[in-house]
Design a protein that fits this description.
This protein is about 0% helix and about 40% strand. The chain contains no helices and eight strands.
Amino acid sequence: MTPPPGQLVRQTVHYTIEATGAVSFGAATGAAPSVVGVYAVKNGTVDHGVAKFAADGTITTTNGESGKWVLFDADSRVYTVTLGRDRWSLIYQPGHGFIDAQNQLLIFEQRH
């Protein structure tokens, strides 16, 4: 069985997965899309550089800052993001990035 394309299984080497019983390769119900990746930071005059969102909820930037991201509400894709002294409530738009929930500004532009 070959799983459908997507982020469920990353293929770096050839391997086989055997699934028995009722199997679905889709995301879990209520799960938010993965935000793990690299983002260009678009926060006005503050230069945070480029940010990397890790799977463990941490953020590191090219200029040495660190922070955290936390899912607040999966259904609306709202996250709380802190980086340095800045803290935002942001809406994640897959393929686009994180939008400030209050003023609709793109704060983190998704790179990959």
